[in-house]
Amino acid sequence: MSNTRRKSNEIINFLESNRYPQDKLYTTKELAWIKIASILGINLPSYSNLNPETNGNLQVEYLKYIWSRTLSEMIELFGLEKFLEYSPLYPNVSTLENQCKIEEPKLDFEKQKIEEARFILHSENVLMENIAVYLMKKYPGEFKKTSSPSDVAMQLSVIIFSTFATKNNLIKIPFIDIESSIAADIHTDKQRPSKENDTYDKSHASAALPYCDYFFTEKNLESIINKRKKPLSLVYDCKTISSPNEVLSILQSI
Length: 254
Description:
By secondary structure, the protein is mainly alpha-helical. Helices cover 61% and strands 2% of the residues.
């Protein structure tokens, strides 16, 4: 399951939970099959001239091959220089974000989290339009014939945001809850500079926490996930660890 499909499932599950009793719906955990690459940040082969099924089969075989190799074999296969070089896919916004932190007054975490959720919904406009198309086909009698997918997507975004802002129960849409929490933590902490890798960290955490028992990550992200009175690791029942010794101990015990 791709990150896009996982996010769609989480949003649709939330919307359908307002229509059907919870015991009539699958949970997001039952619907999601998370590719290890979505958590670790590994790029998978994908070819635009092949259909989705063929691409999926290629990716499965690729992962089977890669994860049958030892770490030293992987490094030898790809070349050490590939592991050491870093070429970000996103523009460098760290300097601008850090400048904003200096100029802004102290921000409240909960208020900032709501604003981050608003931004996430706005940035996922293509995803929301695809969900709107799906729902308009499934429930044709519930939408005006003159409504476009973009109109319905906007309405859905307003419903989701309003629910989050007033009831704060967006745990039902894990990726928005997790990504908005991490972003709010980063943007309200003037002592911590924004980094290029923050975008990847949010994505990896939202793919791992709701669906995995353990999440092994670097120290900065681990500290964000485990902080506050009710940390994300506790909310999603996913033990999040950065200590190499503790990771090794857990792996040996499994």
